[in-house]
Write a structure and sequence with these properties.
Distance between the termini: 58 Å
Oligomer: single chain
Mean pLDDT: 95
Order of helices and strands: EHEHEHEHEHEEHEHEHHHHHH
Bound molecules: nicotinamide-adenine-dinucleotide
Strand order of the largest sheet: 3-2-1-4-5-6
Radius of gyration: 21 Å
Low-confidence stretches: 297-306
Shape: elongated
Largest sheet: 6 strands, parallel
Number of helices: 13
Structural class: alpha/beta
Length: about 300
């Protein structure tokens, strides 16, 4: 297939490479030229604009930072809707707010285009390995057409319902993840402060009712789990910046729906403080530092002395 791919950042680049591996022909564009060149070297056709990327292709995929970028790339002057053929399938894999996703999909439908929202989980590692999960909102026929393409980049494809529901699933899942991560940080640091060995406490929790993904797979407390970002200084993983972004999307969507989300609002503020403190690029489990910074400082100075 001929595919236009717009947004070649941390996720878009490896997703393009997996599409190339499966034999698809790619036209690519990013507003940052340095991000286009390595993909051109890998065999993609470089284009000078999003619109150029979207002409004479079977599929357009967008992987952009957030709602305003998606709105402008699709609906802006010289945007995709001003050029794209009616037979072209549109896939937006960015994480954006569900209302914008529904609005853009509505315009696509009026023009006669199939469009799905297909935000992902799995992070950069999943994008590189081709094991992403796609949460899809849109018409079943659009999903059927998109499935062979999504399978080149991901392992799980979940149809969440009509347009915008992929985004609903994504931001509500991440709202729950942020709250459970903060709860895990509180429990882990309190138990430690009260005299328990953190690894022993995590073992108790993970065999008890406090267990959750943040405690048994991604424990934020240093020294508990070799495979978690806590074991490598919180470098890599899912950034605090992105968690703050998703919590803000969830809070905004809740406001628009008139639905209280009390703990999400607190989580959003905690992540705002954490990011403002210079931790935006660190994995989101680094929020444990807000509870135990004295402990981290002690261990760092002990390391230096050692
Ligand atoms: P990124 O910032 O690395 O990449 C986005 C790219 O879009 C940038 O290269 C930027 O230059 C480009 N861009 C912005 N506006 C543009 C425009 N008008 N025309 C062309 N290009 C434009 O972000 P990312 O980490 O690749 O994430 C992309 C999306 O995936 C986001 O919505 C993010 O929330 C979501 N996501 C990211 C991760 C992750 O771990 N990085 C995980 C899950 C979901």
């Amino acid at each position: 297939m001929k595919i236009g791919f717009i947004g070649l950042g941390r996720m878009g680049n490896p997703m393009c490479r997996n599409l190339l591996k499966h034999g698809h022909a790619l036209r690519v564009f990013d507003r940052v030229p340095e991000l286009v060149r390595p993909l051109a070297d890998a065999g993609c056709e470089a284009r000078q604009s999003a619109a150029q990327c979207a002409t004479e292709v079977d599929v357009v995929i967008t992987m952009l930072p957030s709602s305003p970028h998606v709105r402008s790339v699709y609906c802006g002057q010289d945007g995709l809707f001003s050029v794209v053929d009616r037979r072209t399938l549109l896939i937006d894999a960015s994480t954006i707010d569900p209302l914008t996703a529904r609005e853009v999909a509505g315009i696509a439908t009026e023009r006669g285009n199939f469009m799905i929202d297909a935000p992902v989980s799995g992070g950069v590692g999943g994008a590189e390995a081709g094991t992403l999960t796609f949460m899809v909102g849109g018409d079943q026929r659009a999903l059927d057409a998109a499935t062979p393409i999504l399978q080149c980049m991901g392992r799980n494809i979940v149809h969440c319902g009509p347009a915008g529901n992929g985004q609903v699933a994504k931001i509500c899942n991440n709202l729950m993840l942020a709250i459970e991560m903060i709860a895990t940080c509180e429990g882990m640091t309190l138990a430690t402060k009260l005299g328990m060995d953190p690894k022993t406490f995590a073992g108790v929790v993970n065999a008890s009712s406090g267990r959750c993904w943040s405690s048994d797979t991604y424990n934020p407390y240093p020294g508990v789990m070799d495979s978690a970002p806590a074991a490598r200084g919180y470098v890599g993983g899912f950034s605090s910046n992105l968690m703050l972004k998703d919590l803000t999307l969830a809070s905004d969507a809740a406001k628009a729906a008139g639905q209280p989300v009390v703990l999400a609002a607190v989580a959003q503020q905690l992540y705002q403080m954490h990011v403002s403190g210079g931790n935006g690029d660190l994995d989101f489990s680094s929020i444990v530092k807000m509870y135990a910074n004295d402990l981290f400082l002690t261990s760092v100075s002990a390391d230096k002395q050692g």
